[in-house]
């Protein structure tokens, strides 16, 4: 089975590598080549602007892919807020190109918790959507287009985290940003009033592969981690795991920082994930366990706390 993974950023690269690691074929596609992040496996890559008419159809034909994962940008919530039309074209416009060409192929669309306004403590598949920002509106519009496809799966994922190197040429995911800044001796200011259910990138890749390969997939599925945590508490936990003084994390209101455009509660729960045959065996990891796993993989033991 060959999967065309549209978007070769943080999430797309991890999904493509996970597919390759499990004996499947995967090819990445984006406008510019993927960042060489030093990981041992480099998936094949083809150039594609998915929003350009005809480009996705041509790439699908050329790669002869059986299945598709859509995990392209724009992904920056703050950028989308100041570029709402580009955000809409990048997601809903691109979804139309995919819908025209995908036929009955399985298409897994990595969607977001930002389709909700964040006023509920947590949102499940049956919670009515109500995006409160341009990013959420664009992703929700793309969901609408793609849901008409027979093979589409809308996988709404909470905030994704994992290891990224400090020289990654984009805004790092929250975990990686905290680790590198705390290790560099900086302080981290994080909101005490922005709540997430963070999910480890490995668990996202595993769930995506399960949905790509299963014979019967749900049309809509939520994936959040098992912990509901504020960014300030999460950052404090990372500091503790690194053995860095707690005072280097300062808690601030969401409205003061980079997270001003994010809903207060970007938390997802699922009525299906634990019971659907495609995902029932999967166990998204708690934040503390995943933190130990990531630091153990990427840092020498001397810089990790033994606490
Ligand atoms: N990261 C998270 O926490 C999270 C959570 C839920 C959902 N998601 C979704 O996952 C997707 C990817 O997130 P990410 O963190 O991996 O973002 P990212 O690191 O910014 O990567 C985005 C990728 O999309 C490509 N891209 C952008 N516009 C494109 C276009 N028109 N045609 C083809 N490729 C295009 C980018 O490369 P070029 O610019 O070179 O084309 C890049 O490779 C986003 O759609 C986001 O909504 C992410």
UniProtKB/TrEMBL annotation:
It comes from the Bacteria. It holds the Pfam family RmlD_sub_bind. InterPro entries: NAD(P)-bd_dom_sf (IPR036291), RmlD-like-bd (IPR029903). Residues 1-275 form the RmlD-like substrate binding domain. Signal peptide: none annotated. Coiled coil: none annotated. This is Sugar nucleotide-binding protein.
């Amino acid at each position: 089975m060959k999967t065309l993974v549209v978007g070769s950023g943080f999430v797309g690269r991890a999904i493509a590598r996970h597919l390759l690691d499990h004996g499947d074929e995967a090819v990445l596609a984006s406008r510019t080549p993927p960042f060489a992040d030093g990981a041992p496996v480099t998936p094949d890559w083809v150039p594609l602007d998915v929003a350009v008419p005809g480009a996705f159809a041509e790439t699908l034909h050329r790669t002869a892919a059986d299945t598709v994962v859509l995990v392209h940008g724009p992904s920056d919530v703050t950028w989308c807020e100041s570029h709402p039309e580009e955000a809409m074209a990048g997601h809903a416009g691109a979804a139309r190109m995919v819908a025209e060409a995908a036929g009955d192929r399985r298409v897994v669309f990595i969607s977001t918790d930002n389709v909700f306004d964040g006023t509920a403590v947590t949102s499940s598949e049956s919670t009515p959507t109500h995006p409160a920002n341009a990013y959420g509106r664009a992703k929700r519009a793309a969901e609408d287009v793609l849901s008409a496809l027979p093979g589409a799966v809308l996988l709404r994922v909470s905030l994704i985290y994992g290891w990224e190197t400090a020289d990654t040429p984009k805004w790092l995911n929250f975990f990686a940003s905290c680790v590198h800044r705390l290790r560099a001796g900086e302080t981290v200011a994080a909101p005490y009033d922005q709540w997430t259910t963070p999910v480890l990138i490995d668990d996202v890749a595993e769930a995506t592969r399960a949905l790509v390969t299963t014979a019967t997939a749900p049309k809509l599925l939520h994936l959040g981690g098992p912990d509901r945590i504020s960014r300030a508490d999460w950052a404090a936990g990372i500091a503790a795991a690194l053995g860095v003084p707690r005072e280097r994390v300062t808690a601030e209101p969401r409205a003061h920082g980079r997270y001003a455009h994010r809903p207060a509660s970007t938390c997802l729960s699922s009525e299906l994930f634990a019971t659907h045959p495609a995902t029932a065996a999967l166990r998204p990891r708690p934040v503390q366990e995943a933190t130990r796993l990531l630091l153990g993989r990427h840092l020498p033991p001397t810089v990790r706390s033994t606490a």
